[in-house]
Structure formats: structure tokens, C-alpha cells
From TrEMBL:
The Cytidylate kinase domain, residue ranges: 9-208
Family statement drawn from the similarity comment of this UniProt entry: Belongs to the cytidylate kinase family. Type 1 subfamily.
Organism: Sphingomonas swuensis
Name of protein: Cytidylate kinase
One Pfam family recorded for the sequence: Cytidylate_kin
Length: 216
């Protein structure tokens, strides 16, 4: 199989499904730059939080988009508070439009790129060569998020994490602007019963299945 010269890989899926781990691994495997697009929405949320803007105001959230670049490496991006606000402000069409060009430019790099998020295969890079929709049961995703948060020393309860995961799924899947759906042509990867290494190996296999066969 010949590896295509331009390889854009779109990885979408719900919260804590493991899409970021897979997308990062695909980037390393295929030598492609990777963008976690959730960070952009989290940065808008963090900017809003620090400035004291109202997450209920689309106008305030749009203003917060100006501050994204300086916040992308901030450790507070990972907090559940920021993630919750991100899932609210990401429903605003004005916020999605403000972040669109940056993501499309990343996807258009020579050679290709890997992007993960909620609307990569539907809106950002609908022409991507390989599209994956990564999922896992809400209970398994809650366990993974719980383990991640507790290992960072954050005191959380598993039940609360599950409630949060379900609320996030509901908001991300039912908003009118770029809802989370399996894109046309996206290959489903359910990682519920897989280790992270098994999930990456399967993702690599699925991406390689889209390569053109080389004539011998
Ligand atoms: N197959 C797996 N089995 C167990 N744990 C996993 C697996 N895949 C990822 N994880 C762990 O689950 C947590 C969430 O994974 P990851 O950050 O990749 O998910 P995500 O879908 O990108 O999350 P989000 O975008 O909502 O932040 C991480 O701690 C990661 O190490
Ligand atoms: N392409 C994307 C990426 C993310 N979002 C929203 O941001 C929230 C945080 O994302 P994480 O992947 O870091 O959990 C998420 O809940 C989505 O609402 C988005 O809309 N589109």
C-alpha cells in the first residue's frame, strides 16, 4: 500500500472517548502535525471565565475568542469547569465561525494533518481522506475521565463525572450549529473494551485501509 502524499485525518467523538489519545498517536505514526480543536473552545471558555464574561451571552463569548492564542498551553484548560463552559459556548454560531479559519488552515498544511474534535469530518475537513468516529460507552468514558482527574489530585465522584459526561453528550449532539454526529464516510471505532494501545493499532489499520493500493 502506498501512503498518500497528502493525508488529512479527521477524528471525532464524544467527551473522553479517547479520540485525543488516538489522534496524537496517529500524528506520531504518520509523521503529521496534530491539532486538538477542543483546546480552542476551552481557551475561549477560560478567557471568558478569567475576564468575568457571561457564558449565556453569545456576544461576550465572541469577544473572548480574541484571547485564544495566549491560553492554549494553560494548565487550567483541562479543568471540568472550563470543559463545561466550553461545551456551552461552542453552541454559539459566532464562536464556531471565529474559530473556523484557524482549523481549516491547519488541515490544509502541505502533507496533511490530524485534527480531533466534534465537527472535523462534517465541517472543518469534510474532504479528509480518513475519518474516524471514536466512541465508548458513557460509563467507560466516565471511568476514564475519573481516573484522569483523580490522578491529577482533583477530588471528584464517579457519579458526578458520569452525570457531566451525559450532559456534555446531550449538548454536543443536540445543538443546531455543527452537532456531534458520525460524518458521512466516517469509520466507527468503539474503544469501550480496548486498551489505548489496542485502540491506536485499530485506528492505524482503519486509516491505512483508505490508502490506494499500489499497482505491482
Ligand atoms: N482505550 C483506552 N482505555 C483506557 N483509557 C483510555 C483509553 N483511551 C484513552 N484513555 C484515557 O482516557 C482519558 C481520556 O482520553 P482522551 O483525552 O484521549 O479523550 P478525548 O476524547 O480526547 O477527551 P476530550 O476531548 O473530551 O478531552 C485519558 O486519561 C486517556 O489516557
Ligand atoms: N471541534 C470541536 C471541539 C470541541 N468542541 C466543544 O468543546 C468542548 C470541549 O472539548 P474537549 O474535546 O476538549 O472535551 C466540547 O464539549 C465541545 O462542546 C466543539 O464543539 N467542537
Amino acid at each position: 500500500m502506498a501512503e498518500p502524499s497528502t493525508l488529512v485525518i479527521a477524528v471525532d467523538g464524544p467527551a473522553a472517548s479517547g479520540k485525543g489519545t488516538i489522534a496524537r498517536g496517529l500524528g506520531q505514526h504518520f509523521g503529521l502535525p496534530h491539532l486538538d480543536t477542543g483546546k480552542l473552545y476551552r481557551a475561549v471558555a477560560l478567557s471568558l471565565l478569567r475576564w468575568g464574561g457571561d457564558p449565556e451571552s453569545e456576544f461576550a463569548a465572541l469577544r473572548a475568542c480574541d484571547e485564544v492564542s495566549g491560553l492554549l498551553d494553560d494548565p487550567e484548560l483541562k479543568s471540568e469547569t472550563v470543559g463545561g463552559i466550553a461545551s456551552r459556548i461552542s453552541a454559539y454560531p459566532a464562536v464556531r465561525s471565529a474559530l473556523l479559519e484557524r482549523q481549516r488552515d491547519f488541515a490544509a498544511q502541505p502533507g496533511g494533518a490530524v485534527l480531533d474534535g466534534r465537527d472535523i469530518g462534517t465541517v472543518i475537513a469534510p474532504g479528509a481522506r480518513a475519518k474516524l468516529f471514536v466512541t465508548a460507552s458513557p460509563e467507560e468514558r466516565a471511568r476514564r475521565r475519573f481516573a484522569e482527574l483523580t490522578s491529577s489530585g482533583l477530588p471528584v465522584h464517579l457519579d458526578d463525572v458520569l452525570i457531566d459526561i451525559r450532559a456534555r453528550d446531550e449538548r454536543d449532539s443536540h445543538r443546531s450549529a455543527a452537532p456531534l454526529v458520525q460524518a458521512e464516510g466516517a469509520m466507527l471505532l468503539d474503544t469501550s473494551a480496548m486498551t489505548a494501545a489496542e485502540a491506536l493499532a485499530e485506528a492505524i489499520r482503519l486509516v491505512e485501509s483508505t490508502f490506494p493500493s499500489q499497482d505491482l
